[in-house]
Design a protein that fits this description.
about 325 residues; alpha+beta; 3 domains; five-stranded mixed β-sheet; three-stranded antiparallel β-sheet; about 45% helix
Length: about 325
């Protein structure tokens, strides 16, 4: 049974991630609304419904791209659509045209994430673009998946194809999901390489960075206890130094000292190109990780390493105290 509570941003933002697999929680305000939390920290709203004799899980969208009130409001509409009889279309449609519809109607991501998805699909699934949905065979799908380098990417593209063809069936463009039943792509689970000593070496390497904003952004990955996407998109108006808060999330002492020393000459704390915020400084990160002696370290590894060790508390001040204690324990003289 799913754990039940009243969905609100503070609780959802700070839900612990499972070590493996996923957890499910349920909203008390709208009991039909539920959420998956995966071991990668992805949080997805969904509803369950028995449709034509089969138990279906219908995805509404990922949090926080879809906010809580929007997810609650979408429940009735999603369930109504699920009960409608399938459309039967005679008009042919190419894979590219269907993918464009799929992105417009089913993808709920921020602009940067959606752009990356579209770019990846164009790179890996291009051989299918000119084919009509009805003429694509299982062999076509297996062939295009087999040519993708990297098991993780191939697995994601295979899952995406299953979802796209499921959408094609719902829209009446085909009756068969040719991507269903493909052999599961075996992936080697990555061992996260960070340790206490490694974290100390990482902070020392970050402090040697010349660029002030890159240095501060990377240090906030350690001091901020938040994913990189949220850290890099921080805005000055979200900070309350009187109460040591960022939105509703407490700031550690090290984070407060770091941020107060930054120049406030931009809308963003960590400005990037074109007037936007810092997006994906992978070159600088690779350099820092190499200097720290952990070349395969990712930015997300830092967040997950610390959050797994942070002692949870219901009170913000207690969480803040636990943050400070953990950083002191991990970083010692740093």
């Amino acid at each position: 049974m799913a754990h039940q509570f009243f969905f609100n941003p503070y609780i959802l933002d700070n839900l612990p991630t499972p070590v493996k697999g996923f957890d499910v929680v349920q909203d008390i305000s709208e009991p039909r609304l539920r959420m998956y939390i995966t071991s990668r920290g992805v949080k997805t709203f969904f509803v369950r419904k028995r449709v034509r004799g089969a138990d279906k899980r219908i995805i509404i969208g990922n949090y926080p791209d879809v906010d809580i009130e929007s997810a609650r409001a979408a429940v009735v509409d999603v369930l109504d659509k699920a009960l409608k009889k399938p459309i039967v279309r005679r008009k042919q449609i190419t894979f590219k045209e269907l993918f464009d519809l799929y992105v417009a109607n089913r993808i709920r991501r921020n602009e940067d994430s959606q752009t990356k998805l579209v770019r990846s699909v164009k790179l890996h699934l291009a051989p299918l673009f000119s084919k009509t949905i009805s003429e694509i065979t299982r062999d076509d799908v297996e062939n295009v998946i087999s040519k993708i380098d990297g098991a993780a990417i191939a697995s994601r593209m295979q899952d995406l194809l299953q979802s796209i063809f499921k959408y094609a069936i719902e829209q009446g463009y085909t009756k068969q999901n040719v991507a269903n039943g493909l052999p599961k792509i075996e992936q080697k689970h990555r061992v996260r390489p960070l340790t206490k000593t490694g974290l100390q070496h990482l902070v020392a390497a970050i402090n040697s960075e010349q660029d002030e904003f890159i240095r501060a952004a990377f240090l906030m990955l350690v001091y901020g206890f938040a994913p990189r996407s949220k850290i890099f998109a921080m805005q000055w108006e979200e900070l309350d130094f009187n109460h040591d808060l960022w939105r509703e999330w407490p700031l550690s002492d090290r984070a407060v000292v770091l941020l107060q020393d930054l120049p406030q000459d931009s809308f963003w704390l960590f400005p990037g190109r074109g007037g936007s915020h810092l997006a994906d400084p992978r070159t600088a990160w690779k350099r820092v990780a190499r200097v720290a002696g952990i070349p395969n370290l990712t930015m997300d590894d830092v967040y997950k390493f610390l959050m797994r060790r942070l002692e949870w508390a219901a009170d913000r001040e207690d969480i803040r105290a636990n943050m400070n204690n953990l950083l002191d324990e991990m970083l010692d003289e740093y």
